[in-house]
């Protein structure tokens, strides 16, 4: 029995129908979902008659002499749709209701099994850089399917010694690996990879498979990495009573490729080590190896988030959220473990916009207005705060506020960081105390601060000395507010049911210093 594939999405006005007619011609029809079935069947009959006429086309003389035979060739074939229980679907039934999975379409003597919204791949790609010993995580986008239900088969390029008469590299050998993530061993260095993916859904339906080949061969990895030893402590995801959080600034590609970066900031790095394709391999392996429940990243390129980190960490059970900086190409990313949390709400802000427009920061904004030079610099910054409220999948009564930020970087920008952290703490207090009373907070980020800095003191104690050096971090002419509003102090209520992971400090659980 042939297939008639129907794609019908409620939010779209039309449905599509794909099938191969009895004459062998492929057809792709678009019909209104509200249109009566009879009209769609009439169009199918017309198309089938045209195809049959072309297949049996005769010379003008033969058609003239054909008489009744010619008329019979042009007759429309009988077309009808039967439901799964064998009943004829009435012509007046709307297309959206008529074309159900398992129904049977008859075109003359030909039969077609209707497959409504079968699993289908919309994108399948492999990363450009492949390193031995590092996980290869394909980007998989599917419709009516989910990556966790797809079937994956990995192949490696045939070696010249295995060619057996074929041209070297033309054949493929299936590996023993199965699953979405494949870590090529050293034995595959110099060989390309191929992935065959069959999309599937939770009802054990499978769509047509697609294949993708790597653009280049597997390359040798860097050997042992600094994070290998740390991974020994994080081989498993921590239990339901604990939360493990990881925070990193992963260095946006634009900042790694400048002349200043190559000659001043990172002169000790070989050029290849600063290339984003190479760095992404290390990032994905390190982050996945921590088996974290929460990952907060800064300086994340938009394309890196979408094309690299999201498919890689999704394969390890993590869902990602992204907030780009104002008028920038990079921003913040927060990932959370799907089987532990679900996203309840998001409360992201841009510091400059929030300071001007939200009544919550009115007192601070009024004080800052007395210092135009500093105010201008604060409002020019593109820094943002990412705030996500997560709910436990095991106990919905338990919630967690996860904040992530990247404060202004300049060594002389301590006064600007003070304003930014004041806005951040006020906003977090609003979310964790007003919107969701007394939920615990984990605050991660690149604060560009040290334990002696004003931002750190304000986070940990809720106050800052009037004579702190950060007030004049860029000179006396930029001396600013001597006292941040006391109302900005945030009390981070700990949840005794959620305990921070206490393995060696390869992550930042800054929420711990905000407790009592």
Task: Describe the protein in words.
Helices cover 27% and strands 26% of the residues. The longest helix has 22 residues, at 414-435. It is of the alpha+beta class. The protein has a 6-stranded mixed beta sheet with strand order 3-2-1-6-5-4. Strands 18, 19, 20, 21 and 22 form a 5-stranded mixed beta sheet that branches. Strands 10-9-11-12 form a 4-stranded antiparallel beta sheet, with no helix packed on it. Helix 2 crosses helix 3 and helix 9 packs parallel to helix 10 (302-315). It folds into 3 domains: 2-116, no CATH class; 120-213, Sandwich (Immunoglobulin-like), CATH 2.60.40; 227-254 and 272-514, Deoxyribonuclease I, Chain A (4-Layer Sandwich), CATH 3.60.10.10.
Enter the CATH topology name of the largest domain: Deoxyribonuclease I, Chain A
The proportion of residues forming helix, as a percent range, comes to 25-40%
Q: Report the principal-axis shape.
A: globular
Q: Which residues sit in consecutive blocks of at least 5 with pLDDT less than 50? A: 68-73, 485-516
Shape-level CATH architecture of the largest domain: 4-Layer Sandwich
- CATH classification class of the largest domain: Alpha Beta
> How many structural domains in the coordinates?
3
> How many helical elements?
15
- Strand order across the largest sheet: 3-2-1-6-5-4
Gyration radius, to the nearest Å? Answer: 31 Å
Query: What's the overall average pLDDT, rounded?
Result: 86
Number of strands: 23
Instruction: Summarize the biggest pleated sheet.
Output: 6 strands, mixed
Strand content: 25-35%
SSE-based structural type: alpha+beta
Q: What distance lies between the first and last C-alpha atoms, to the nearest angstrom?
A: 69 Å
CATH superfamily of the largest domain: Endonuclease/exonuclease/phosphatase
């Amino acid at each position: 029995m042939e297939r008639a594939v129907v794609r019908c999405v409620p939010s779209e006005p039309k449905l599509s129908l794909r099938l191969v007619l009895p004459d062998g011609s492929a057809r792709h029809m678009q019909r209104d979902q509200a249109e009566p079935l009879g009209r769609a069947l009439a169009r199918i009959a017309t198309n089938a008659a045209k195809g049959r006429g072309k297949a049996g086309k005769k010379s003008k003389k033969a058609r003239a002499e054909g008489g009744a035979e010619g008329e019979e060739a042009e007759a429309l074939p009988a077309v009808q749709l039967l439901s799964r229980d064998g009943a004829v679907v009435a012509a007046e039934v709307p297309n959206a209701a008529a074309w159900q999975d398992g129904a049977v379409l008859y075109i003359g003597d030909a039969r077609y099994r209707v497959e409504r919204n079968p699993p289908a791949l919309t994108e399948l790609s492999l990363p450009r850089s492949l390193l031995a010993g590092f996980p290869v995580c394909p980007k998989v986008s599917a419709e009516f399917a989910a990556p966790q239900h797809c079937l994956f088969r990995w192949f490696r390029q045939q070696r010249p010694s295995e060619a057996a008469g074929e041209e070297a590299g033309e054949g493929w050998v299936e590996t023993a690996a199965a699953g979405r993530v494949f870590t090529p061993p050293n034995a595959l260095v110099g060989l390309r990879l191929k992935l065959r993916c069959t999309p599937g859904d939770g009802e054990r339906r499978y769509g047509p498979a697609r294949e993708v080949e790597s653009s280049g061969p597997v390359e040798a990895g860097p050997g042992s990495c600094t994070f290998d030893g740390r991974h020994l402590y994080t081989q498993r995801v921590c239990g339901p009573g604990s939360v493990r959080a990881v925070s990193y600034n992963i260095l946006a590609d634009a900042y790694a490729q400048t002349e200043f970066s190559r000659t001043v900031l990172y002169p000790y790095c070989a050029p290849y080590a600063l290339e984003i394709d190479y760095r992404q391999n290390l990032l994905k392996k390190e982050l996945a190896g921590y088996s974290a429940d929460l990952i907060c990243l800064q300086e994340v390129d938009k394309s890196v988030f979408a094309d690299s980190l999201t498919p890689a960490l999704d394969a390890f059970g993590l869902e990602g959220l992204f907030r780009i900086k104002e008028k920038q190409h990079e921003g913040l990313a927060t990932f959370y473990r799907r089987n532990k949390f679900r996203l309840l709400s998001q409360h992201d802000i841009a510091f400059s916009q929030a300071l001007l427009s939200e009544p919550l920061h009115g007192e601070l904004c009024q004080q800052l207005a007395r210092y135009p030079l500093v105010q201008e610099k604060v409002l020019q910054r593109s820094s943002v705060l990412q705030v996500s409220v997560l709910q436990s999948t095991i106990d919905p009564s338990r919630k967690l506020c996860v904040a992530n930020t990247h404060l202004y970087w300049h060594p002389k920008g301590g006064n600007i960081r003070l304003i930014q952290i004041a806005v951040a703490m006020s906003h977090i207090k609003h979310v964790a105390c007003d919107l969701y009373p007394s939920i615990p907070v984990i605050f991660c980020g690149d604060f560009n601060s040290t334990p002696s800095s004003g931002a750190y003191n304000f986070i940990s104690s809720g106050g800052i000395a009037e004579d702190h050096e950060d007030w004049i971090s860029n000179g006396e002419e930029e001396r600013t507010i001597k006292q941040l509003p006391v109302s900005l102090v945030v009390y981070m209520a700990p949840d005794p049911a959620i305990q921070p992971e206490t393995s060696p400090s390869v992550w930042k659980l800054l929420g711990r210093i905000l407790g009592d």
